[in-house]
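Box 3.1 A note on notation
Throughout this textbook, protein chains are presented in two layers. The first layer is the amino acid sequence; the second is a token string describing backbone geometry. Keep the layers aligned when reading.
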Amino acid sequence: MGSFFKECEHPRSRWAKCPHLYKIRYRSAAGNQLEETGFATQDDAIERLTEIYKDKKTARQSQPKAERIRKYGAMRLEEYAEEWKAGQRHLAVGSLRHLDSLLEHHIYPALGRRRMNSFDHKVVDGFIRTMERNGVGLATQSNAFDKLRAILLDAHRLGLFSDNPVAGVKEPQYDPARAVIPSPEQLRGIRTAGDDAFMLIVDMMSGCGLRNGEAYAVNINNIVADDVYRVSEQVVLASRQYGPLKHRKPGEYRDVPLPAQVRETIEWYVDKHGMVDGYLLRQPSDPTRPYPHYAVDNQWKRIKASGTVDIPEGMVVYGNRHFFASNCLTHGIPITDVAEWMGHKSIEVTFKIYRHLMPGSISSAAQILNLGLAA
């Protein structure tokens, strides 16, 4: 820490009574030896040495942060984002492709050459206004802002910004288009309009709320109870292989209700077509490979083109999954349960898409509440 002493003829044992002032000697943070004088007592000298030691220790602790700020603050956004992306190991192949598209087509052209230490809320707001002027769709605006926010918040945690650069920014107000949902009568016609695999997929989507790729990975071993199906994987569009669920890490799953009719369809399909390692659906020309997305897409195009089936205007195959949400909400099942069963990242997503399906109004609420009031 340093030393204290007196430069006089008196021995150390006499310093306490000696009138001469104390001196201290220490090394600076740069390693240079320094001296200070003018301390009347030994305690004063020690107190000053302690103060210097604390200052040096604080400086050493803050040095890594200062080095980080110098290193990353001078980086261009494009360079920083590539380092950040390398750490997103939880993202599935499809999600990485989507991220790359947003970076390449929206974030990098507008902000890629900007240095990280130059970002603040005005820069972020300007990015959103640029997308608005360029006619970028609201869904893409929202996704691009979400990714930019994640990158900047990562930099904020490193200490690059004293203030959160996205705080106070009004994000794009994306409101998903109203889902096109078939009626029960239309669903009955749709499910039998294709081959057996098509019917099984429609039942898994409309009865259990599975996404397209999740339905293609239907497995008899995932029936964990007579009325519970465990969704644990999907056929990934990009890789055409089995992979983790959307917004989930490998090994994570969600349990969903399994209506008796859907379970009967699964058992009927197994009895008629068999299975491979528990999987019901495989590529028609190569049973060793997962069921391909195009097999349903091609059937759906043929069914719509035939004009023989009553299909709502604008409906896509995903509309069968929308039917599941509609069936739940119109029968009073809590939206929190629906969000969990459908695997949504947050309940806000469920609410934005399906809020118009939730029963209730001020008048009906008044009638229901009245029933619980004392006369």
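The mean pLDDT is 87. The first strand starts at residue 3 and ends at 5.
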